[in-house]
Amino acid sequence: MKSLKYFHINNVKFNYVLEFQSNHKNDYWKHNAPLIEYCETIGINIPHYCYHKNLSISGNCRMCLVELKNSPKPIVSCAMSAKSCLNNSEIFTNSPLVKKARENVLEFLLLNHPLDCPICDQGGECDLQDQSLFFGVTKKRFYNFKRVVTDKNIGPIVKTVMTRCIHCTRCVRFASEITGTEDLGMFGRGLDSEIGTYVTKTFQSELSGNIIDLCPVGALTSKPYPFVSRSWELKSVSSIDFSDGFATNIQVYLKNNQITKITPEYDSSANATSWISDKTRFAFNGMFSPERVLKGFIITGDNKVAMSNTWKILLDEIILTLYFQDHLNKHFFETKSLHVIFDSNVSLEVLNLLMMFSKKYSFVKLRKSENNLYNNDLEASFLTGNHNNLTNQ
Q1: Which of 9, 131, 140, 233 can pair with 229 through a Cys bridge, CB separation 3.0 to 4.6 Å?
Q2: Domains in the chain, start-ordered, CATH in brackets?
Q3: Full DSSP string of 162-196
Q4: More confident position, 17 or 195
Q5: Are 183 and 204 in contact (CB under 8 A)?
Q6: C-alpha to C-alpha distance for 27 and 24, rounded to whole angstroms
Q7: This prediction's pTM
Q8: What is the band of 2 on the pLDDT scale with cuts at 50, 70, 90?
Q9: 151 Cβ contact list (under 8 Å, min separation 6)
Q10: Which candidate, 97, 72, 83, 71, places its Cα nearest to that of 27?
Q11: Which of 2, 12, 29 is nearest to 92 (CA)?
Q12: What is 282-303 written as a DSSP string?
């Protein structure tokens, strides 16, 4: 970490200089940006848990403390504007006082935090794990029993292990400010504090899966994704969400060329927000569902349904039927129709082939399926424009 020294509004005396435009549209002073955000723009990273740029300021984790000259005690960088702090003053982000404050904060956070790293799905991408390594200490002074918090059932998407919760309230602010559901809240005081639903109910929102990404620890993880893989086993591919009209940028994580999870791409400047819907996040699970139709069906003349052994047998049957119509009995289908049912998520290439197919044969009728469960082109849709990356990996 580097120290941030001798910053003034009109005179910048430091190696890092933020260029201001004359129209002040990118002027952080004018917009009263938090000090932690301004430090990030000039390459100085301040550790934090509760702060998120798309949520309101909470300032309860106290991990982002910095030292302000002539201040009796450290200040919270996420709750203080850069304009007020850097006006004829000095800020230190790596002084002995700041280091000691971070060590004390981490010691309090780890008092009741269980040692679940080997069995936690957040292992390898946990903020508490990383910051304990860089800013924490190896000794401990607490040898009593750790407290235990009852897990909550907040729905089929989010798995809760509330003993790991550090009360950053990101999920609470997300539910209140982004989804507007007010389903989550903080209860109790002191040692009895815990996060849960106000009544015994689920977190009902189409964006509920985003609290999995917001949680800095393993308190909120993906319920359909337990113990599947570690973060270092996955390869990521940038893609675009096909399920909405906003072309949201997403990250598709692969293991053995199989999609394991999907998250929003936070670093993309094209995204207006950092949220994706639950449909975007978990729709790929239908690809591997045992309820999918893996083999074709042939209806015989006596209305009996027979399952074909392979797709080749079914396709050969269709080819023979079309050949019979074209060359032997062109009037056979005048009173009959061949219905081709397709899903709404098929790729443009498949839709184009279906259109050519229906134009060539007048008896072919295209119908859109109301059930999105059986989708053979879902993986191809996610990897549009990235098939070379997938092949190379």
Answers
A1: 233
A2: 1-98 (3.10.20.740), 110-227 (3.30.70.20), 230-287+378-393 (no CATH), 297-377 (no CATH)
A3: GGG-----HHHHHIIIII----EEEESSGGG-EEE
A4: 195
A5: yes
A6: 5
A7: 0.71
A8: very low
A9: 160, 161, 162, 163
A10: 83
A11: 2
A12: HGGGGGG-TTS--S-EEE-TTS
Specify the DSSP class assigned to residue 108. H
Cβ-based burial of 255 (10 A; exposed 0-12, middle 13-18, buried ≥19): middle
Which residues are 83's β-sheet partners? none
> Containing H/E element for 83?
helix 82-85
What is d(CA 29, CA 43) in angstroms, rounded to the nearest whole number?
Answer: 17
Which positions ≥6 away from 63 have C-beta within 8 Å? 47, 48, 49, 50, 102, 105, 106, 131
Compute the distance between CA of residue 225 and CA of residue 121 in angstroms, rounded to an integer: 8
Q: Which two tokens stand for residue 201?
A: 């109910």
For residues 185 and 172, is the Cβ–Cβ distance under 8 A?
yes
Q: d(Cα 338, Cα 30) in Å, to the nearest integer?
A: 65
pLDDT tens column, 243-287: 777 778 889 999 888 888 899 987 645 555 678 888 888 888 776
